[in-house]
Amino acid sequence: MRPLTQEETNTFFDKLSKYIGENIKLLIDRQDGAYCFRLHRDRVYYMSEEQLKIGSSAAGDCLLSIGSCFGKFTKSGKFHLHITALDYLAPYAKHKVWLKSSAEQQFLYGHHIMKSGLGRITEGTEQYQGVIVYNMNDLSLGFGVAAKSTLACRNCDPMTIVVFHQADTGQYIRDEDNLT
Amino acid sequence: MAGKQTVVDSVLAQNQTDEPKFKSTHVENAELVEIDEGLLLASNENKLDLKEFRQKPEEILKNLARDATQVLFNSLWQLPVEKVEGHFLIKLPEIKTWLPREKPVPKKKAVTKWQEYAKVKGILNTKKSRMVWDEASKEYKPRWGYKRANDDTKDWLIEVPVNADPMEDQFAKKKTAKKERVAKNELQRLRNIARSQKSKVPGVGLTPTEQPSKEHLEKALAIAHKSTASIGKFTDRLPKEKPSKYTGKKRKFEPSIGNLKSEKEKQLKILDIHSKKIPKIDVTKAANRALRQEEEERSKAAEKKSRKTPKKQRGKKASLGLGKSGGKIRKGGGNKKTRGKRRM
Q1: How many contacts (CB atoms, under 8 Å) link A and B?
Q2: Percent of chain B, pLDDT > 90?
């Protein structure tokens, strides 16, 4: 377990800022104690200072997971967000998408979102902007990337993909062994 | 006779009453002592009566030692005894007690890189015979070395390969190839030794390989960069060239539990820089502009449509009119002068 290097922090924040913009500040600079990001086995974990202190007494080989996993660095150095980060992204989300109840299951099975399943979308969402996906009861289901901007959404036909799927809460069941 | 008998009896009796001249060789509880004649070892592993021992330790220890020694000597005298030049000799039997070895267990020989590879791949060594039939001399000769069979170094003629340069010296080529192979082998031997001693494996530039890999070339480049008198300080770099992986420097990370405050500040700084990089756009303004543009375009397109349709209609009507009522409209066309003339 170690802190992120400058380079890693840059790529990590780049990715995070697609979803929560400058709200990353609120994750780092918290009123209720010191929190930090730590890299362990190519995965980035978010944890409090106490958790860090307890966790660092464990040998690296034995440590499976600590705090909550935000995602992982791929071997080519890119960063992938995991569904486990949703709880921290959703409250600070800048751009949201609401799903109709009919499209909810499709999304939770890992499919992209079609225009037909789109209930609402935040005004002013740009293309390729990271979005958090909610159902109509404002329950966060996952996140993805906007394939079309809000304006373009209006004029496209119902079978076009509007949001690319990235992660959904169904992964807790489907990808249980990959999530830590 | 009777007198003699009495004398013997009396002597014996006196002997018994007097202290015996030699101490007895008899030991009570002799079975408690374990004997290993080979090592001349006697050991008694039974517990002592502690209370008694505290009262008179010296005496008890002395007795124990005496008993053990006596049992050992008794058992030695049971073995076959030889007499050589007035001395008694006993050949000691094999030892029964296993002693720990004096020296540490010898370490296993370090495997070479090839042996390691062969083990992984499951390559087995097939034994080849030392002697090989030599066709030329019609006799068995060693496979390699001095006076070897089928010796190709002694060839007086070498065929030039089809795609080779005809002026190339094939003999010299063969010699250099052999030299290179020997050098490579020597290098690998040294590296194996270095590896087994866990010292640093000497860095090498390009060992002769048929098809150097990307990594191989990268390494060679890094070495070539450094191979100047100033250790590469003034070597020109390509624009946007990444720093080499083979600098010999280890990555260093900050401690896991360091100063969290400074770490936080660092991250905030990064965020600050990050936010400055993003071009600031008033999203609503831009969206509104885009909307207006789109609407304008749409209205233009609509206008064009509305303009076009009446024209077409007019044209159609005109053509229809032509078909139906001949030159009626034509009479209406043209300027005033011609109109008048035509009528006339």
Answers
A1: 60
A2: 33
Of B256, B283, B290, which has the smallest distance from its Cβ to A38's Cβ?
A: B256
Q: Quick check: A158 pLDDT over 90?
A: no
Question: Structure pTM?
Answer: 0.49
Which of A16, A22, A41 has the highest number of chain B CBs within 10 A, making it the mutation to test binding with B? A22
Spatial distance between the Cα atoms of B198 and B201, rounded to a whole number of angstroms: 8
Residue A30 has pLDDT above 90, yes or no: no
pLDDT in tens, B7-28: 777 776 776 666 667 788 888 8
ipTM: 0.80
Distances in Å between the alpha carbon of B126 and those of A66, B149, B248, B283? 53, 20, 41, 76
Instruction: Find the helix or strand (DSSP H, E) in which A46 lies.
Output: strand A43-48
